[in-house]
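$ ./design --mode recover --in tokens.txt
reading tokens...
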């Protein structure tokens, strides 16, 4: 069965072998396996072994969806939300199978606040979220559709795909970020965190605590390490966040011992400023992750 849905998860398998598992809690992709050069399936996403997958806490790994605020809320209409919003911590539903053939296996999930009183109490603005996950032989596409269902009021939000990429943190580097303006969230004061820096490095590593928000980024990135690489392309996610806590990771209760050595978060998003979506319009933020073929 190329698509297999259970109460809590959806499993997709491509005819050429690649696999993806999505937890309906948060519509969190928790596993993406692609064949390596030897033809063996290899996991590409990090999930902390201490992360709860029981719907009690956002997953520490995979691809959590950040919506409608990134970080602590700063927009007046978001004041009741918690860090990174609610999309990653609510139960989504399977809407339909979109495609199931050699080109790809694709499923659409939905988060509808009209059937979820909790969301409506935190965020009364009418909207609908759908998420299309498409698996190809060496690619995973994740597209977030945000519809403003209000007939009269604009919807203001931020959105981001918080990818935890499995890769050795002391070896990897990310390109091309050179020349971009970024905000360094590891700085000690509000003023320093709000002052943009310019990225001078051709190859950016995460060997020290890194939490950088790059603005107006190229939406095409490559993560390279000794024995592998991965490409990420995005559309409408104009910014990108690069995060690895290094030893600070000790402070995260759900981080496995030295887990920060195993991944990097490279997170395309719209997080500087807000998308202002007119009534009855839909915004689509897209991402395609690929394992380059030799
Ligand atoms: O612990 P979480 O709420 O999942 O956030 C994890 C991380 O997400 C983003 O990458 C932010 O830039 C970081 O500042 C934050 O620490």
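writing sequence...
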């Amino acid at each position: 069965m190329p698509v297999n849905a259970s109460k809590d998860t959806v499993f997709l398998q491509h005819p050429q072998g690649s696999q993806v598992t999505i937890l309906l809690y948060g519509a969190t992709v928790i596993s993406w396996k692609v064949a390596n050069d030897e033809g063996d399936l290899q996991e590409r996403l990090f999930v902390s072994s201490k992360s709860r997958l029981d719907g009690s806490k956002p997953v520490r790994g995979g691809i959590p969806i950040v919506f409608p605020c990134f970080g602590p809320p700063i927009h007046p209409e978001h004041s009741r939300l918690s860090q990174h919003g609610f999309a990653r911590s609510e139960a989504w539903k399977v809407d339909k199978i979109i495609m199931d053939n050699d080109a790809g296996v694709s499923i659409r999930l939905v988060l509808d606040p009209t059937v979820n009183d909790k969301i409506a109490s935190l965020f009364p603005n009418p909207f609908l979220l759908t998420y299309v996950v498409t698996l190809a032989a060496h690619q995973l596409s994740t597209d977030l559709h945000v519809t403003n269902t209000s007939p009269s009021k604009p919807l203001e939000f931020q959105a981001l795909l918080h990818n935890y990429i499995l890769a050795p943190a002391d070896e990897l580097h990310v390109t091309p970020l050179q020349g971009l303006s970024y905000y360094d969230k590891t700085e000690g004061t509000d003023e320093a965190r709000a002052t943009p820096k310019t990225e001078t490095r051709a190859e950016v590593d995460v060997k020290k605590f890194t939490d950088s928000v790059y603005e107006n980024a190229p939406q095409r990135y490559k993560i390279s390490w000794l024995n592998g690489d991965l490409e990420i392309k995005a559309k409408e996610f104009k910014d990108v966040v690069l995060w690895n806590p290094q030893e600070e990771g000790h402070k995260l209760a759900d981080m496995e011992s030295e887990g920060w050595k195993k991944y990097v978060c490279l997170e395309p998003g719209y997080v500087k400023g807000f998308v202002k979506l007119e009534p009855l319009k839909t915004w689509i933020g897209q991402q395609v992750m690929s394992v380059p073929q030799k």
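exit 0
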